[in-house]
Amino acid sequence: MIEANSFEKLQELNKENTTNLILDLALKESKDINSNEYTAELTKFTELKSLKLNLSCCELNSEQLKDFTIALRQLKKLQYLKIKLVENVLNESNFKDLSDSISNLTDLNTLNLNFDDVNVGNNSFATLGQGISSCVNLQNLKIVLRKSKIESEGIKQFAVAIENCKQLQSIDLDLFENKTKNEGINQLFQSMSKLQQLKKLKLDIVKNELNSAVGQLIAQHLPKFTELNQLYLQLRENSLQCLGTSDLLNGIKSLPKLKVLSIGLTNNDIAKQGAVSIANCVSNLNNLYNFTLYLNQNKLLEEDMKAIRSGIQKAQSLINLTFFFNGNNITQEFANKFIASFQKIKRIVFLDIFFQ
Fold it and tell me: Angle, nearest 10°, between helix axes 181-192 and 152-162?
């Protein structure tokens, strides 16, 4: 991978032989970036297959961003594209330009877009989905849209659009602190359930105004995820409570090929019923070998912890365990005994348990 962090460096590179390029202009002042010059040089890389473009914190104006997004259209051999636009101001026109450019990159295998702390909104997110829907060879998709004011309608339109990407094997969506609500997440899982090649799903929906009903909504779609072997769900600071947690975990235990499970349920008012559901879920996942559980700041008692331990002891494939139990009603004496009981399980290779 060849890196350029200035116009002069970009000019010096061999355009015809470069297939992998990093153009890193992060933290440069917008006045120091002549977008016309940069993009004119960028489009000369006719054999480019991999591009990492970092424009974070540049405070580029709309026209400068437009130049970069339109330039991408001419890089038709791209198979890997990663763009970071953190802390820039993008308008709907910029997202339309980016969407149009992505739709032309039909050889894309991997797409990674980071708009952290960018006000995207529903229309722009839906537009982005339309562009991605043309990437029929896409296998890996990652999008970071934290605090982007996305509501249920935006994610529903995005979800329906990516149904067209039948080759997707990995999806990573970071939607921290948006307003997708139950109906948006329901449509997302319904759409993803149609992607029969999907093996890895990573979803951060912390602070998305979800309630207990979302557990059942997600669970009803999970049996269709027949190839899924890695699942990472962050649901911190919603209102799943015991009922929503139980419904969700009943759905997760229907994933026969699951090998890696990470589930974040911090601050969701989870107590005994949720703990029992965790135990039942894990004990039924015969291929699970890596389990990470975040149960910080809930209402678990020591008896509930015993139920979780009992379920894990029955899971004969589990060898890597990471638990976060701080902020529950657990004494230090019990915590010490709990950790010691796991240390006696010979099959455990990695163990990390936090009570404080």
Answer: 0
Closest CA to 312 of 283, 284, 272, 352: 283
Boundaries of every domain in the chain: 210-356
Query: What fold does the segment set 210-356 form as a domain?
Result: 3.80.10
Is the sign of the CA dihedral 310, 311, 314, 316 positive or negative? negative
> Under DSSP, is residue 35 helix (H, G, I), strand (E, B) or coil?
helix
- Cα separation, 39 vs 70, in Å, equals 9
What is the spatial distance between Cα 7 and Cα 247, in angstroms, rounded to a whole number?
55
What is the per-residue pLDDT across 146-163, written as a single tens digit (0 to 9) for each?
988 899 999 999 999 999
Nearest to 113 by CA among 145, 88, 90, 71: 145
pLDDT in tens, 185-212: 999 999 999 999 999 999 999 999 999 9
Tokens 């902020």 correspond to 327
Cα–Cα distance, 303 to 293 (Å, whole number)? 17
